[in-house]
Amino acid sequence: MEPLHGMNGREMVLKTVHFQSPKGLAMTLPKEYRYDFYGWGPNPSPDARCKKGVDEWGAVWDNIGTTSLGEVKQFPLLDWEDFPKLKIPDVREERRWKGIEEVREKAGDKFLCGSGFSIYERLHFIRSLENTWIDIYENPEKLCELMDILVDMNLYAIEMYGKYGFDGLMFCDDWGLQDSLMISPKHWRELWKPRYQRIFEAAHKAGLVTILHSCGYIVDILDDLIEAGLDVIQMDQQMNMGLDLLSRRFRGRITFYCPVDIQAVMAFGNESTIRAYCREMVSKLGTPTGGFIAGYYSSPQSVGHTPEAIRAMCEEFMAIDREIREGIFQYV
Question: 63-111: per-residue pLDDT in tens?
Fold first, then answer.
C-alpha cells in the first residue's frame, strides 16, 4: 500500500467530491493497493438482499448460480389489498445500530460511508418488477405510499450517521437497461426525483456526501439526480453511454466513482486496452480539481474478470495517482 503523501483517505475523498484539488486519486481498490473508504450499515439491514431464504419483508429469495446474488422467487405484496398486512421492518430497533458509536474511531482516517436503503429496487423486491411498472400507471398513490416508507427509513439512517460522525451515505438503485432507462424519464421525475431530493437534502444537512450506485444507461436522469443533490454517481458501466458524452455533459458537475467498464472492457479487453481505458476515463471524467474516484468490481469472478485484468487496472490507477501527485497527469 502506498502512502498518501500528506493527505489521508478521508481528506482525499472529500476534496475530490468538493472539487478542492486533492493531491492524488481517491480510490477503493483491493487491500493490496489502497482503499480510502470505510463502510458500515445497520445489522441486520432492512435492505438486505439474501442469497437464499426469507427477508424481513417476507420476500423469498433463491440462488442457483455461482454469485453471491439471489433473486426474489415469491413476492410479499402481489395484491395491494394485502398492504396493511405487509411486514415492515422497524429501522429504529436498537439491535440494528449496535456499535455505531465506535465506528468513527474504527474508521480512523478513512472516509466513513453509511449504507442507505433502495427506494426503487426494494419496491420490485416487494411487488415484483412487472407490478411495479404497472403501478406507475395504475396505482401511483399506493406505490408512493410504500416508497415513502423507504424514504423515511433513509431519513432515520441519515440522522444516525450524522450523529456519529459519518462522512457519506450510499445506496443502490439500478435504473438502466443497456441502452435506455427502465421507465420513462417523465414518470421518474414525477415519482422518484422528489423523494431522492428529500433524502439528499437531509443528508447534506447532516454533513453527509451523497453517493448512488446505478448501472445501465442512466444519461436521461443524471441531470435530475444532480439537481436533486447527488454528489457522487457510482457506475460500473460507462461505454454504453460513452465517455465523451458523459464528459461533455456532466464532467465537473458530479463526481464519477468507477472501475473500468465491467462488461465491455474488463471482461474482454487485453491488459493494454484496460490500462489505456483507465487513462481515458480519468482524463475525461475527472478534472484537475477532482471529480473522479477509482474503484473495482468486488465480485470479479461472477463477471469474468481475470486476475491479470484486475492487476492491470489497479496498477494503472496507482500510476495515475502518482502522476497526479507529481502534477504530470494530462486531462483532456
Answer: 877 666 789 999 999 999 999 999 999 999 999 999 999 999 999 999 9
pLDDT for 5 beyond 60: no
Per the DSSP assignment, residues forming a β-bridge with 212 are 171, 233
Count the domains in the chain: 1
- Is 219 within the bounds of a domain? yes
Q: Which domain holds residue 187?
A: 9-43+85-326
b/e map 321-331, b = 16+ CB within 10 Å: bebbbeeebeb
Count the residues in the chain.
Answer: 332
Taking the C-alpha atoms of residue 163 and residue 160, their distance in angstroms, rounded to an integer, is 5
Q: Residues 85, 183: contact at Cβ < 8 Å?
A: no
DSSP string, 98-151: TTGGGHHHHHTTSEEEEE---SSHHHHHHH-HHHHHHHHHH-HHHHHHHHHHHH
Q: Which helix (H) or strand (E) holds 302?
A: none
Global confidence as pTM: 0.96
